[in-house]
Amino acid sequence: xxxxxxxxxxxxxxxxxxxxxxxxxxxxxxxxxxxxxxxxxxxxxxxxxxxxxxxxxxxxxxxxxxxxxxxxxxxxxxxxxxxxxxxxxxxxxxxxxxxxxxxxxxxxxxxxxxxxxxxxxxxxxxxxxxxxxxxxxxxxxxxxxxxxxxxxxxxxxxxxxxxxxxxxxxxxxxxxxxxxxxxxxx
Length: 186
Description:
Structural class: alpha/beta
Oligomer: single chain
Distance between the termini: 15 Å
Shape: globular
Strand content: 15-25%
Order of helices and strands: EHEEEHEEHEHEHHEH
Radius of gyration: 16 Å
């Protein structure tokens, strides 16, 4: 049975970058793109970074989400059909980026098929990455304040018993990808 690897961690810890790299590098790994009601940031592409949907669409299709959550006044959710399609009839593993609550919901729904990986990055590097997003016009200063407050709560999830593995993403991306390949037996 193929696995669903759920990457969690604080905003700007690198979890999305790692998921995307694995998806591009390995044919047997598929990244599931989640839905959100927020607007795309500078450089984001619909159906690549997120599926950008209206709040009305999200609420009208709420039953199709295996998990959903509200963050920074926007809805985020994982479509169950998209996860099933990404598993490709047992031919592929899935990678998906969520928060701890989304990871727990997936574990509840899919059981032992889900593995939760906490992506750790030093708080100074996280804050610097958030500040860079403000400087690049990707997020507002107000959103950055909220994200920095959320970082502390996200770091607390590091000790949650739902977490199966932790990787350190303070070094090179190659080192982090190497560790993930070990965990995922790729």
